[in-house]
Write a structure and sequence with these properties.
YaeB-like fold, Rossmann fold, eight-stranded mixed sheet, six-stranded mixed sheet
Length: 800
Amino acid sequence: MISILIIFLWWVMKVIQVKALNKCFRDLSRSGKKGKDVITKVRAAMSEAGTEGEITSLKRTNHGESRIPNAEKYDLGDGYRLVVQLVDGKEKIRAFLFAGTHDDAENWLESHKDYHWIMNPKDQTLEFVKVSSGPSSISSPMNLDLETPIEMMSLPLLRHAKKDELLKICDSDLVDYAFTITSEKWEEDSVGVIDYIDRAHGSDSAILYIDLFSLSHDKKYQELLTRIELALGDYKLAGADDMAEAIESSSNSEIFVTWEDVVGIPDDASWADWLLFLHPKQKEISVKNFNGPARLRGVSGSGKTCVMLHRARHLVKKYKQPIVLVTLTESMRKLLDSLVKELCGVESSYISTFTINSFSEKVIHDLHPKGAGAFTRLRDDVSVSKSVLSFVQGKIIGSKAYKFSVGSGLSKFVEDEISHIRTRLMPSQYDDYLDAKKFRRIGRGSGLGLAEREIFLEAARYKDEQIKGIFQLDYEAVVVAAAALLSKDKESLAALGWRDIDMQQLDSRLSEYHPFRAILVDEVQDLSQIEISMLGKMPVFGGGRISSAEDGLFLVGDGAQTIYKKGFVLKSCGVNVANRSFVLKKNYRNTREIMAASYALIKDYQYADVDEDNVVSPTQPDFPARTGERPALVKCRSVDSQIEFISGRISEIVGDYRALHDDPNGCPEICVIGLNSRIREAVKRALEDEGVAAKELRINAGDYESNSVSISTIETAKGHEFRYVFIVGVQEGVIPAKGLEDDEIARDASRLYVAMTRACDSLYLTYTSDKENQASRFLLSIQEFCNEFEYKGKSLIVMD
């Protein structure tokens, strides 16, 4: 949509920038020095329009511009153009609409021909929507739709409109006729369609349907719905006086920011949309003073990470001390690091990014007398795991207390239970595991008895001894080591093999150790209890710990997006967020259709809200206004058939993108999430056979390649977003996996939810249905919110 604005307030004159101009800036910044010079000229023109009420530094184009009312087109040099609209000549309000090459400007103007500002009188909300002036506004031939799959071209073009609303405006005969018009029919004979409506139902109806068909054909679905609201009388054409008042109305505060908010952004920044916009509630949280730790929850795509980044910048300005951002994976850390550099100016030098494990390693390096040489990382724990399993099997055989067999499934059970102990309790606290009241096991259908707990406690200690015996630390032990150093836990340090640490020397180091003023944690729902405890134990300047410091600890996450089986209880971590917990419900990333299907998947399960002491149904999102095509469920005959469909569809998307952008190597943001390694490898090979570059998105790597398709697991895709997402192999027994308990099924639903909500615009889920394979039960939950197809003979067939 083009209707989201930025307002720059200068003395009397006002400058409005539509959000779409940010994309122009982002594209221009990739065009080298010429593009950056254009950005500078546009920003200078904004300043001039605000201070002088006119733009004289740029030359108006020779032929003027009449496709948009009161439009001004300027020559930026080197073949670039700027499109501005004089919204109110009296108040000198100008809207900056587009900047780009001459050809791109022409295409933009043609696709926005007859656009006007309209306003909802009830709340003064402004929108920029096509409102044609007469049947002659239709031109032929129409631009061809190169993005919609051919099988969907036969569906009604107005399928996103509601018939009952159109029936309030038009005769039923006209509405019925309108719903027979497909994309194919509109492209073949748009003039004939409008001519028939004009003759049979009058020019007013013809004018309306020019707009409705055109907007739907251009995939401007939200503008389509708003245009219907205009016809219903819910909106009106906005006059100059309306605009002057509405742009400063508090009802538009969600979509407006002032010049003060953006003037500090570096000239070479990408102007990524999220950098410029904060909902008032988001902004309030990002600058709020907290007298202790705080928690921000939010639905997928609600801008939680955006708020965290803005808050980091705010805290640097406030305290002028180092701030740290902590996340799960190296891929996500590098993404955060790049976003910090885009958002911040000089503050970026005071903001560090770490994974939770690299942060733990830093603490060990800083506090252990041997620094980085204190340990080596255990990279392969297969032999240790086998040894631990044998230990448990021996205990089971010698004990009648254990109620499970030694057979299949024991290995996973042993691994999960020992991990549960080692991520919840320090070695000095292990005995607490035997007390079922003190150490509750959330989510298990039937708990373990005392004799069984004794076996697993012995196994946890046995694993610690095995790791200590080879003088290495595994992932969990690295975190334990950092927490033990911070809390001077001598018993736990000894369990790691560090008996010889001089505690007085450690105490002296700790007295001078306060590397960060605040710690902000992303994806906190996937951290363990000891990980959060370790972060909370970090000292701060002047005494005390991060967990109790003003503005010290800021936890960001969403229980419904839990990927890893860890969990925590905040009070057991020494963290109290009472009266400092906030929720963001508005989704900004996805289309309404993708979010509706995604929420339908998880709404009947329960997840930890703030922590495991509060397990509830997930927060219902405020669904986004942006609309699009419903997700596609694609039934295939085999795994190979799924791969053939996906590689072929992606090849079409990439080919159309390259033709449209005249870029032989270009590629839109596409991610294929394969639910096993065989599928991921097969998709990568198939794409390469199609001449499309594909690269694995690794959990320990950086951002995805801009000119290649990303191949990913669910876990690795978390934190990223893509225009197109394909989820391959959504089968029962895979997701959810076989033999899961109730809490684990909910977690697998959460994993699929995370995968689905990576898609900004288009989402495909494929599955095989035959004698040996069944579609995942999760697909039944989302079926009514999706379009269903069957892939046969290299064609997609719409399923009834």
